Amino acid sequence: MIQRIYWKPCCLGLGLLATVALFVLASAFPKFPGDERALVGFQGLQAGWLDNAAIAVSSLGMFYVFLPIVAVVVAILVLKDRRADAFLVGLSLVPMMLNVGLKALVDRPRPDFHIVGPHASGLSFPSGHSVFAFIVGGVIIYLVEQFVQPLALRRWIQGSVAVLVVAIGASRVYMGVHWPSDVIGGYLFGALALLVMIAMRNAVATSR
Fold this sequence. Notes:
The protein contains nine helices and no strands. It has helices at residues 2-28, 35-43, 48-59, 63-79, 83-91, 93-106, 128-147, 151-175, 180-207.
C-alpha cells in the first residue's frame, strides 16, 4: 500500500533533483564528458539525405511553425467542448517560454561544430527544440490515448510521435548546434513540465 501511494511523488522528486543537478552542472561546464565525442560520432554519419532529413525534422521545432498549429487545435477543442484538453494544449506554450529564461540562467555557449542548416543563435542549454518536442509530443500521445479508439492505430501513432521526438533532439546534435547534454536537459525539463501540465489539466476537468 505504501509503495502504491508514494512511488509517483518519489519518482517526480528524483526527476526534479536530477534536472536541477544537470542544470547546475551545465552552468558550470561548457560541455560534459562524452559530449564532444558523441557529437562528432553523430556527424561522422553525414550524408546528403541525412542533411536534408535533419533540416526538415529540426524545422518542426520553429516557433512560427507550431504556434499557428497550437492556436488551431485549441480552437477546435473549445468548439468540441473539450475545454480541459484545450487548456492543456494552450498551456504547452508556457514551459517553452520559460525555457528562454532558463537558457539565460545557465548561460552555456553553443558548440562550434555546425555542419548543415541555418546557424543557431543564442545560448545552448537546454535545447529549446527538445523541450518543444517532448512537451508537444507528450501532449499528442496523451490526447491520442483519449480520442483514437482502435488500439493498433493508437499505438502506431504514439510510437511514431515518440520516434519523432527522439529524431528532433538527434537532429540538433547532428547539425552541430547543441551538445547531447543540451538535448537531455531539454527532455528532462520537458518531462517535468508535461507532468505538471497534465496534473493541471486533470484539476480543470474535475472542477467542471
